[in-house]
TrEMBL record:
Pfam family, one: YpsA
Superkingdom classification of source: Bacteria
InterPro entries tied to this protein: YspA
Protein name: DUF1273 family protein
Amino acid sequence: MRDQIVALIENEGVTHFITGMALGVDMYAAEIVLDLKSKYPHITLESAIPCETQAIKWSVASRERYYNIAAKCDKETMLQREYTSDCMDKRNRYMVDHADYILAVWNGCPSGTGNTVRYAHKKGKSIIVINPVSLDVTRE
C-alpha cells in the first residue's frame, strides 16, 4: 500500500488524501500518509467521518489510535452527527466524489468496499485495487 501511495504522489501528482477512518485498511493507510508527510510536506490528509459516534464501541486501544490519527489530519469532514444505517455509504460516496484516484484493498467479494469500487467506476474515477490475499495490484 505504501508503494501505491508513493506512486500516486510521485507519478500522478496527488497531494490530498482522504481516509474513512474505519478500523483496518483506512487507519493503516492514514498512518502511511501521515508518515510520508515528512518526505512530502505538501501532502494533506482529510478524515471523512461518517458520524460522531463512529468509534464509540471500539476497544480503548482502537479509539486511541483513531483519535491520534484524527488529531493529525489537516481537515476533518463530519458527514452527520448521528449514526444511520446508510452513514457509511454516504461517507464512501463523499470520498469517491472528492477524489481523482481510488485506492482500495478488496478481494472482489460483495462488501462495502465492493459497493464503493462500483460507485467509483460509475463516476469514472481511476481505481487501484490491491488484492489482500495475493497482493496483486490492478488498475482500472
